[in-house]
Every structure is written in structure tokens, then in C-alpha cells.
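Holo prediction. Input below; ligand is FE2/S2 (inorganic) cluster.
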Amino acid sequence: MTTLTVNGTEYPLDLADPRVTLLDALRDRLDLTGTKKGCDQGACGACTVLCDGRRILACLTLAAQCDGREITTIEGLESHPLQDAFVRHDAFQCGYCTSGQIMSAVALLGENRAGTDADIREYMSGNLCRCGAYSNIVAAVREVARHA
Amino acid sequence: MTTKLFGEPVHRREDARLVAGNGRYLDDLGADALAVAFVRSPHAHARITGIDVDDAIDVEGLVAIYTWEDLPEGVREPLPLLIPHPALTHGRTAYCLAKDVVRHVGEPIVMVVAADRYIAEDVCERIQVSYEFLKPVVGLENAVEGPNLVHDDVPGNIGAHMVQEVAHRDGRATREVIAAAPHTLEFRLDIERSACMPMEGRGVYARWDADDRSLRVYSSTQTSTSVRMAVAAKLGLPLPKVEVIAPDVGGGFGVKIVHPWPEEILVPWAARLLNREVKWTEDRREHFISSAHERAQVQHVKVGFDDEGRVLGLDVEILHDHGAYTPYGIIVPIITSTQLLGPYKIGSYRVEFFSVYTNTVQVTPYRGAGRPQGVFCMERTMDKIAQYLGKDRTDVRAANFIQPDEFPYDQQMIFQDGRPLIYDSGDYPESLRKLKDLIGWDDFPAMQAEARKEGRRLGIGVGCYVEGTGVGPYEGGHVQVTSDGRVHVSTGLTSQGQGHETVFAQIAATELGVPIEKVSVVTGDTRRFGYAVGTFASRAAVMSGNAIALACRKVKEKALRIAADALEADPADLEITDGMVHVVGAPSASIPLATVAVLSNPLRYAFDEEAKRATQFATGGSMDRPPVAEGQEPGLEGKDYYSPVRSTFASGMHAAIVETDPDTAEIKILRYAVVHDCGKMINPMLVEGQIHGGVAQGVGGALYEKMAYDEYGQLLNASFMDFLMPYVTEIPKIETDHLETPSPLNPLGIKGAGEAGVIPVSAVIAGAVEDAEKIVVDKMPISPSDLYALRDSSRTSGAVSLLRNTQ
Ligand code: FES
Ligand code: FES
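Structure of the complex:
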């Protein structure tokens, strides 16, 4: 039995099939569907979550690897200023990449690397947005970084 | 006054749920559904000689395996050819599951239903399909040269051939005009394949209700009403027993307008057969190899022009790659052929296309839908003319512009909706003036020269386009005011992130005079609105926006009439503000719209305090009239449709400044400017978002995206790792300016905006790179290695023609 701690709650998980990724565990077993699957190959960032405060790609992480670690997903944010900033700056359209963008940006703020726009772009460059809301994503992150 | 919301940058109402992770996309539904996976062809062209499932049937958790043989009538026929056209003499579509021949890598052959996707994929791996290999046809020119055929009965792999010609006004044919022109140029252009690549792939989830004998289907589609009709027809179910819902959709960009996808038929069929919930969610590789691509064309161009650069004759021959099937007809090359003309008056025009089959993924519209290719052709032509004559590129364009006083302007062709290509309104000279100001066109040569001195290579490019938007045949809107004062709006077309919940609410709130908080909007749910066409061709705001406005006007008229009775006033003296119907200039003589809704529905039974007012002993009124007057209906609701005579034509112009690295050939966009005219804007913030998104995809098409098929028809870059798309590091800040030339064709004066951003980007970037490098750029996309190779070949071939007239 593996125990996943997600957003402060402990979930016992039967991983008879050890191939289950963290992403599938969250979505299919814990009904935490806010984290999205865009590629399942580690190339789009839609599945970004925090593991012990660091951003990881849930599709490239086996659920079994997360035993005893603290996972934070979009559902675990409590009115984070980034969420509000994303709305005010129109930083998304379809919203499918948004959970990943926000989780990535939350981690970026924690990493203290959101200095300039170029930095924000560089450190958000693992998150694809096919709706192309990039300028506004940068604007939203910049605003929260300034006020942090 | 808080209810005038049309035109305001209102924040989106869909956002709260999306930033909290509470969106409900297809794969977020149906937690208990069985999962589907497919065995798909690993070969581009082969005959299936056997399917062996022996190794697979013991896998625990397997529920069912289906091949073509198992499919019932209806489901086993080829999929529909959605848009027939007389020129499409050899249209071909696929089967839901391949019957005997597979014609591209990724074609579905076996459907597996299992307890979860892991198990379903395990089963797929154990199924052995044997093949007899057939010769794959890859590459447009190979396809035309033969001898190999994609479809045995399609000679030369030509699915369609079409010629359209607009002769010179003196009656001469285009080729004659070109032959007699003072100057002529002839060249070839190449455009690569790309694809929509929404972040959420396709997906279908179906539940069969055995007691009710009804089917509910959720699909990540751009057209739920059409999926519904297709499912009902294919499965032989009465239409009222099928409902289709598009939940939150994670991007579409065209690929989800195609229907029915094999999976949209197979999943509901299996759900009914098994009497279980069944769901299929496309994975990324499946999206690459089994949905749809677009863009690939080879164009041969001849142009004749005068000393001013005015085009006297333009002759374009297009080879259009249609992939293995033509479910969406020849809409894409028709759009290329017609929209190529852009904002220009072309003296005479001949366009001929061959739509060609290859053993690759089928081609259907991707945002822009044939326009980027047409605009690439026309704008490269303009640049070449300017180059040849030693003129400024914007001057040559201006010399060809349709003038503001020439609208409506008839291009004398037939557009993609089967209607005449008549531009309704626009102001192209003003757009160009704004664009030149925005980017600093006239100051650029000095900047370029300055940079040259430091060894930096800068270039500027420009591109103009006209986009037919809001194509028919129609959309509808339903508006209901309930007795709590809420306004419920529904329309049949779907949403994929455009913000329809917001703009349609803005329209309804403005029309009805109610606070936007009172308005809710539902799209793409056949339970709420059964008649619709779908979301494509930048049509949603124009079509449903106007339909909703018209429905609101009906509701308002009724509300004023009922209120006039209650207030003993003349309806003409009434107005609705903030949800209160009141006498103009006398706000105290008023009645809430909620109460009007109560009064609109004469009741026998009271179920709450409000309802009491409408019961039979409470209402006054004449004893000689029936409670529901003749010709009236109970309830405060209205429905209307908007069906335009023809499309409305938006336009825009882009310019970019790029820098190319003299050593690495890296291409960097330093500035990107857009001037855009989509008529009256409902919400400028959302228009801006659409432009940003379009430009980002355009930059992808110009610099990065291509489908790397090898000679065997294997797609070598079928993943996000290998198919390069722009990330935040690749997209510059986009500077925008707007022009609002209202459309005279619809009550709101609006034009579509969804596709605009993507259309001219390849042309703009090609022009800018050419300007920076002084070498000819006729193939898109252009990568650093392409540019590097171009530099080499232009050095060795001594191709210096471009240097001739540059300042
Ligand atoms: S789904 Fe994990 S990176 Fe794309
Ligand atoms: S908002 Fe649609 S992919 Fe980013």
C-alpha cells in the first residue's frame, strides 16, 4: 500500500499495477481532475504539480515514487494571487494548460527567479499553451512577482 | 447605467472555474466508464490479411474486441463525405475500422474495450495484425507523377480538379493579359504541413440508458448538433433519443469540426451494445497520426504587372495535399483560391488546383483553413513585384488596394459557402497607415542601416489579408427570463475557449437591460438547443451573437407589452434598466422584469409568493380575452435565428521586425505588430486574446512546425518533443491597433475574429527574413538550418537578383 499525501490529505493507494503514473493516480483514482494531461510524455507541462514544493511533471512520475511526499495540485491552492492575476490579465482561453501554468508559476515565485520578463519566459518555458496566451501569462506572473 | 456591456473589456465568466481546476473537460467525466484503445496501422499503405486475437483474450479486465467484421450495418459503411462538391469527382472517406486496406499510419483497425486504459493498451499489444505491403505514396509531386495509387480507383491520385477564372474587364483571359503585361514574374512556393494540436485531444464518452432507451454522448467537438445527427443516423436511433453535449473543450482550432470521427460512432455503439459507460480519450500520438493535418501546398505563380506595380493578371496553379481521405471535401483549397485575392483589385485572375491523395493523415481545416497559403502566395507576389520595380513594398500594396468607397466589392468568384465573394466593408488604406505608424515602417531603413554597421542583420516584413467570416447557413439563440429574474441564454454552437459565455452574456445583458450577473449562457448542449451548425470559420460571434440579439429583442418586446398592461402605460414609453421595466423619465413607475416573467405565465397553482401574482383569481384583466392572448405563448422567452445572405469580410495587416544571426542563422522576432478590423468589437480584450493566439500559431507555422514524413509514410516527429511548437520563449510581445468598420450585413455590425491572427504570419516572416538576408525565401517554415542552407545555395548559385533594387 502506497500513501499519497495530496493537498494535505493522506490517501492510501493500492498500486497493484506499478506503472500507474502520479498523473493517472490523481485523476483516475483520487478524482482530482484539475491536473491535465496534454501529452503524457513530459513535453507540455499541463500536468505540472508540486512535490515537496518543487514542480514536477506528474505524467513522468510514477505514483509509487511519491510515497510519503507532499503533493500539491491546483485544487490545493487557496485563492492564490496568481489565480486572480490570470483572470485579470486574460492569461488563458480554453483553460486546458492553465492548471499547469499556474502550478509552474507558483513554484517559480518560490524559486525567486521571476526577476525580469526574460526570466519569467525562460522559467515558464516548459509549459505549452496552444491558445497562445503567452504575453498575458507573462503579465500575470510579473504582476504577482512584483507584489510578492 | 450598468447594463451597456457591448464593447466593454468584461472579464470572462468561465475563468473562475478554470483557474481553480474545476473545468469539466471530456476526460474529467465518466470516472467509472470502461476505457477504449485502438490497434492502429503501423504502415502507411497495406492490405490487412489477418487479425489474430488469441494472445489477447485472456487478459484480465478485457471486455470486448471489435474489428470491421463485427460492426452492424450503418456503422460498417464508409464515413460520410460531409461537403460534396461537383469538382470533387473522386471523394473518398475512411471506415470506422479499416475494412481491408489501410491508407495511412494511424488508421484504426481494432477497437478494444477494457476496465482501464492500461489494460486496453496491453490488449492492443497482444493483437497480431498481418499485412501485405502496398507501395506508399508520399509527397505531392510523387503522388501526381505516379505510378502508385492511394486508392485503386482514383487515377493519378487526383481527388478534385477545379479552375476558376475572372477575366479582365476587357474580356481577355488571364494568361493573355499576363503575356501582354509590361512586366512578368514566375516562381514557385512551398508550404509545409502543420496541425491544430489543441492541448486537449479528441475524446468521446457515452452512456446508454436501457430503461429510457436513450443515449447521451459527450464529445470534445466543435459541433454537437451534427454529431448528434450522425450518431442517430448511424446507430438507427430516433433523434430525440440521442443527446450530445460538448463539455469544456481544451482547444479545437478546426480539427474538432470534423465529424463524425470513427470514435464518435464506435464509442456510443459499444456503450449501447455493452450497456455500460464507455469512454475514449485520445493520446498525443494518436492525435498526431489519426486526426487531421493541414496547410501543405505547392504553388506555381505567374504574374503580370505595370510600372506602378498594379497586378494586371495573376495565374496560380496549386497542388493541394489532401492526405488519404476527403471527409471535409475541398473546402481548404477553395478557400485558398478565393481568399488569395486579399484586399486587392486584381486585373484578371486564374486559379487552378489539384487536390491530391497521399498516404498520410487526412487534411481538414486548421485555423485559417487555406488562407495562410493563399495569403503567402499573394503577399510573396507583392514583395517580388516591389523588389523588381525597386518600390517600397507597402506602396505596391497600396497601389492595388480596393478603396473604401468601392464597397460592396464583388470579386466575382464563388466563396466557400457557395455564395458570391462580395466584400461588405473595410478600409484598407487606413489599416496600412495605422500599421506603418505602429511598427515605424518609414524609420526602419535607418534602423536597419545602423544595425548593419554593427554587423547585425535586421529585416522588416508586411502582410495583408481579408478573411471571410461568419459563414452561414444559420445559428439560433434561445432566451428565457424566469420568475427569479434570471436570464437563460442558449445557442447550439460550441465553445473551445473563445469566451462565448462572456460575449453572449454581454449581448443579452445589453439588449435586455439586465445586469450581466443575471445572465447565464449554455453552448453546445443539444438538450438546450437542437439546431446549429457549429463553431468554425470565425463564425460564432457573428452567427450566434446576432441570433441571441434577435431573440432578446423578441423577449424585450413581449416584456414591454406585458409591463405596459401592468403599468397602464404605452409600451413605446417603456425601457428596461438594471432589470427594471420603467417609464422613460419616470423611474418610480416601474416593475421588475422578474415580475413581468411571472405575469407572462398565467397560473392556476401558486407555488411561492411570486407565483401568487399570476394565479387566476389574482390577475385582473378583461374577462373577454383568453388568459393567453391569441398568437401569444406563455412564458417570457424567445427564440430566433440569424441566417446571413453571405459572409462578412474582416481584414487585417501585420508587420514584423526580425533579426537573423549571421553565424547561427537563428531567426528572432524582435517586434510584431497587428492592425485588425473585425467590425464592431463585443469585447476588445477577448479579440486581443484571439489575435495573440492566432499569431502564436502563425509563428509556429512560419518558423517551426512541419510534419516530417519519411518516404515510407512514417511520421517521424509525432510527439511534442519532436514537433516544435512555440513556447513562451518564442512569442514576442504583440502590439495591436484596431479599426472598427461595421458590417452592414448583420444587426450588431460585427465580423469574425477567431482565425485572423494566424493568416498572414508566414508571409510576414518570409518578407522580413528576405529583407534581413537579401536572399529569396519561398518555402515555409524556415528553420535556422533551412536559412543556413539557403545562404549557401544563394552564394553558390549567385542568386543576387534581390540585391538589384534594394536601397
Ligand atoms: S502531460 Fe505531462 S508534460 Fe504533458
Ligand atoms: S489556454 Fe488553451 S492551451 Fe493554454
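Chain A touches chain B through 57 residues (CB under 8 Å). That is the main takeaway for now.
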